[in-house]
Amino acid sequence: MKTKGLVFALCLLTISAMPAMSEHSKKACSTECSSCAETCRKALDYCLKKGSSHRQPEHLKVLKDCITVCKANSELRTRDSKYADEMSRLCAKVCTDCAASCTGLNDPELKNCIAECKNCAECCSN
Predict the structure, then answer these.
(1) Angle, helix 57-78 to helix 84-104, in steps of 10 degrees
(2) Cα distance between residue 106 and residue 115, in whole Å
(3) pTM score > 0.90 for this model?
């Protein structure tokens, strides 16, 4: 029983020691998410025109998901929603998946999307 109490106490200490996201970081994250959504929208347009492997349903879905989640996270961050931290974790995952999907196509035209998704995932992970 003492072990459970110790683990609980350690969890509380870890959570309380985590720094809150500063106002500057919240604004930067919101801006990064908006930029990522726009870059992914351009990548989606490019992939639809390019065709072939670029039009794989799973790839198009992850691009669309990234656009949607990034827009939502930007909005939640802007108005300091209590759900913003949860959405940021989801945003980081979706952006990571989107970057991986674009990387898998080995197309230099998607380098901006890959870079933006990686930057957004990093911002949303902090």
Answers:
(1) 150
(2) 14
(3) no
Alpha helix positions (H), 22-110: 23-50, 57-78, 84-104
Q: How far apart are CA 83 and CA 90, in angstroms?
A: 11
In the chain the domains, ranked by start, together with CATH numbers, are 24-125 (1.20.1270.360)
Distance, in Å, from the CA atom of 73 to the CA atom of 64, rounded to the nearest integer, reads 14
- For 31-87, what is each residue's pLDDT tens digit? 999 999 999 999 999 999 998 999 999 999 999 999 999 999 999 999 999 999 999
C-beta separation of 43 from 63 below 8 A: yes
Residue 9 CA to residue 15 CA, distance in Å, equals 10
CA 7 to chain centre: 30
DSSP 52: G
How many CA atoms within 13 Å lie on the side-chain side of 45? 6
Instruction: Locate 107 and state its tokens.
Output: 């197309």
Q: Which helix (H) or strand (E) holds 117?
A: helix 111-125
Q: Do the Cβ atoms of 66 and 98 come closer than 8 Å?
A: yes
